[in-house]
TrEMBL record, chains A, B:
Top-level enzyme category: oxidoreductase
Name under which the protein is recorded: 3-methylmercaptopropionyl-CoA dehydrogenase
Catalytic activity: 3-(methylsulfanyl)propanoyl-CoA + oxidized [electron-transfer flavoprotein] + H(+) = 3-(methylsulfanyl)acryloyl-CoA + reduced [electron-transfer flavoprotein]
Keyword terms of this UniProt record: FAD, Flavoprotein, Oxidoreductase
Source organism of this protein record: Tepidamorphus gemmatus
Length: 592, 592
């Protein structure tokens, strides 16, 4: 089953649900207008649909292949990447001084959704390059920028992030890779990094690795980490490629999914030492990583949306075509399309509602990040940054959790055919399953939300967000349209639950952090459900106002979410508030 | 990571949670005693741990292979099956007249759990043979029984169930396979069956296919289906194998998981016609299938428990070993096992609680089936049959849903290592994903629960079950032990929710069946949560009474379930009761 980019859903969400239109009208993004936004998204949709989506299956079947230290991408992939960069898609958000188009992150995230729907294994490569661009632009010396940034922005070269080591995944304090100064401003890097996405491939002539390592005299822990730029090929003063650097892909992981994304074990300096240059200040490597972390996490969140969208489309098409069961009065030899059955409808509506909710949360986060850079007033920029910080773990974890959930429902809608690889539904689940893990596991996201994000601005960030949610609840109540059913009441209860649980967490964290942390994951889910339900209601209100311009069924979808998913919210608040003692008493139960 | 059969959990659940001990004491199973039960389960645990579990990985990697119409099982599998049958494991429940040991289903289901934990791809083969034994024993002629039953009971031959055709999965009315009488009491069968589990393999010299087909003059729909026995090799009067029958495996499905289980496209009668014999009355084939359907569904339910158990063990072992993060005051180079982190504890407790709950529901269903056959009083037998019928869709669907859920959490606990196939966690998810689909999709189970099971005995079956649940709630309240925390209140709310939703469904079904059916899936989940929470509480009460004999942590586990999972129950009742209108309004939202 092929994918067709849902451009009208995407445009509607961006412009009317999360409010890009208002910013365009205010001139926040200069002379960028709605017409150009739509034109860009339409063209991206065409590229994703026609050029990337057809690569997904062969990417899964053939995968990336390592031989003699070189990784070959699946048939057709290299050519597609060349067309993609030639069309300018790599440089959407890149800085103008280095050839980028400097467009908003919200627009870029919407295109990223479509690349990832086309193929998650494809989408993750450019995502990492965006991160490298961001880190280098923010922290590298002018010389390094001159040499590397233009080619990374254009996509002529790609970038990687090298954090994880066998003993250090979520816990970067345990990193051991070493960097030794050579006296000429460069360093020799030695160490092994694992799980390096696109660590080696044949898309580009050069690959720019950003590597966390310890200077010789660095203190232990995360305060002793520095960031280094280590290119695959050293670059001559004239910009041409010089000698091969001592950084090698030793093996590829055999993974559940995203087979075409080469996940490399990278050996730095096994021989003469890998030459690298410091990015940013010594021992401040983690700070440089933090610069790009929000954006990288959001980009993984959008992968959850992307795979959910594709799984939904696949299941919907099957449900319209597969005929099983009869309506009263039909002859025994006849059958209806299974979409006629209420249980299948529930499945499809759940898929669509979760997907659309996660999409809105991700775009909302992206727009907040844009406003943090582009808003006129400093106060507005600060508030927007706080909101982006607050929402990022939700965008990452809720979206990737529902990506797995929706992909699994998609298999179920197919019945036995869903379990057969040829159908493609199973690949969606296999691919989706990485997104809750990488770029900070969803458990880490939940802890980040509770420990660092709830206290932002002394609680004003979450307070302002809840106040915004309440305005939507009130607007739903005010219009008093029977088509909304119980939407208003259900969402009011969800927002109350979110507030209640947040207050409890904030009060508990200082005195009993383990009790608060025991509730982190259900709290993040609660946050996602409340935020998603509100976003869909905002969409329904906008659709009602816009009438013909809006996707049909926005009200029905918002109502479905409110009446069938949002009721979980008060239960989750009870779990957050009341669940900790038995989590803490786990020792005995797990011992047996 | 290897598997160690949790024999003490299994024995405790069987004897004390679902109440086998009471029946043993009453002599319901003749002179079968607790000591023999324990000895059998201990020995089965040893076999599963030592002989089957090590086959799981190679089974996944090599899979079943088709060449020249013959299927070869993975290395070591055939030999293990031979040892398994030699040890008598195939014949546990078989009728004594045909060499079986006629032991209770509840005991057999507990062993089946262990075979499936060892390897789901292994466990499903014997499961189907058990079904064939049951159908033949109940419906076949004495001649057919004499020829086939003994060898199926011993496991010398295996059996299959041939229902699905490309156009007919959940909807058997659409079956087209034909049966033409040859005039000598046999029939020629022609048609293609798909998704035939263990349709061809090298475990046994002969394979006995049970095939649903239409007699030449049969009416359309399900009332025109008859059941036929079609052996791979015809059998000579002396019991030796005769000519090869015209039934062939044409291809194997390329599946997401259970790679070692050969899922065959079976061609019946492509050449001279496949010779078969009628089992039961003409046009009553579906009735013959119903005989074994409860048991087959329960056996698939136990697969969910089995895979959840193994995934839990894998994750627990990893969480004890993997070190990331520090407690306050630890040096930066040091790290604690991740099981110390509250979020990981929540994950592991969720895995264990769901697994143990589903196990109890499955065993409870099995014991009800046993009492339906063996109880002294006719009234008790009828009530037990009604309970087995009521619980079967819950045992099948809830258990297989949590199988997928627990396997997915298991991957997450492993972080990046969970996504790498070598770890084994990913295989559990791939294997688990079939169980919600085959033997009646979980959607079909939910519909069965609402349409056929709630009205059983005019509602008395569900009423009696809820009354039993309330007795546990009251017992928890009565002991008033602070270690139970909020268990009593949470479970009372869950049981109330189950009752409320059931009353609404029963009232709605006759007038607005689509509205009731829209709530079927959340209702089944609600049923599973309420029943599972009650079962764990029953276990906690029993453990408290037995003290040293019981697995440690039963109270902690029951409390965790009540406080962290049971709060979903009232939300699910709201979804059942209030969710239908927006499911029914789905058309518009899905159209876009």
């Amino acid at each position: 089953m092929s994918y067709r980019a849902p451009v009208s859903d995407i445009v509607f969400t961006l412009r009317h649900v999360v409010g890009l239109d208002r910013e365009l009208e205010r001139g926040t993004f200069g002379d960028l207008g709605a017409d150009l936004v739509e034109a860009i998204l339409t063209e991206a949709g065409r590229f994703a649909t026609e050029e990337i989506a057809p690569l997904n299956r062969i990417g899964d079947e053939v995968g990336a292949i390592l031989a003699d230290g070189k990784v070959t991408m699946p048939p057709g992939w290299k050519e597609a990447y060349a067309r993609w960069t030639k069309a300018g898609w790599a440089s959407l958000t890149g800085p103008a001084a280095f050839g980028g188009q400097d467009l908003p992150t919200s627009l870029s995230v919407a295109t990223l959704e479509m690349w990832n729907s086309g193929s998650m294994a494809y989408g993750i490569g450019p995502t990492l390059t965006l991160g490298a661009v961001e880190a280098i632009h923010a922290h590298a010396s002018p010389q390094l920028k001159d040499i590397f940034l233009g080619k990374l922005v254009s996509g002529e070269w790609m970038g990687t992030m090298n954090l994880t080591e066998p003993q250090a995944g979520s816990d970067l304090a345990l990193l051991r890779t070493r960097a030794e100064p050579r006296g000429d401003g460069s360093y020799l890097i030695r160490g092994t990094k694992i799980f390096i996405t696109y660590g080696e491939h044949d898309f580009t002539d050069n690959i720019v690795h950003l590597v966390l390592a310890r200077l010789t005299d660095a203190p232990p822990g995360t305060r002793g980490l520095s960031l280094f730029l280590v290119p695959k090929f050293l670059v001559q003063p004239d910009g041409s490629l010089g000698p091969r650097n001592d950084v090698w892909c030793r093996s590829l992981e055999h993974k559940l999914g995203i087979h075409a994304s080469p996940t490399c074990v990278m050996a730095f300096g096994d021989n003469e030492g890998a030459v690298g240059w410091l990015v940013g200040e010594p021992n401040r490597g983690l700070n440089c990583m933090f610069t790009m972390m929000n954006n990288a996490r959001l980009c993984v969140g959008i992968q959850g949306v992307a795979i959910a969208e594709r799984a939904y489309q696949t299941a919907l098409a099957y449900a319209r075509e597969r005929r099983q069961g009869r309506l009263p009065g039909m002859p025994a030899e006849d059958a209806v399309a299974i979409i006629a059955h209420p249980d299948i409808r529930r499945s499809l509506m759940t898929m669509k509602a979760l997907t659309q909710a996660a999409r809105a949360i991700c775009y909302e986060t992206a727009l907040a990040a844009d406003l943090a850079r582009h808003a006129r007033e400093a106060g507005e920029r600060e508030a927007a940054q706080a909101r982006a910080n607050l929402l990022t773990p939700v965008a990452k974890a809720f979206s990737t959790d529902i990506g797995v959930e929706v992909a699994s429902i998609g298999i179920q809608v197919h019945g036995g055919m869903g379990y057969v690889e040829e159908t493609g539904a199973a690949q969606h689940l296999r691919d989706a399953r990485i997104a809750p893990i990488y770029e900070g596991t969803n458990g880490i996201q939940a802890i980040d939300l509770v420990v660092r994000k709830l206290p932002l601005e002394g609680g004003r960030a979450i307070g302002a967000y809840i106040a915004d949610m309440r305005r939507i609840v009130e607007a739903v109540a005010r219009i008093d349209d029977p088509a909304f059913g119980a939407t208003g009441g259900r969402l009011a209860a969800a927002v109350d639950a979110l507030e209640r649980a947040g207050i409890w967490l904030a009060a508990t964290m200082p005195t009993d952090p383990d009790a608060a942390l025991a509730g982190a994951t259900p709290y993040l889910r609660l946050f996602g459900i409340a935020a998603g339900g509100i976003a869909l209601a905002r969409g329904a209100l906008a659709a009602r106002a816009l009438a013909s311009e809006a996707p049909a069924g926005s009200v029905a979808l918002a109502r479905f979410f409110a009446e069938n998913i949002a009721p979980e919210a008060p239960a989750l608040a009870e779990i957050v508030i009341g669940g900790a003692p038995s989590v803490q008493a786990a020792e005995m139960a797990l011992a047996s």
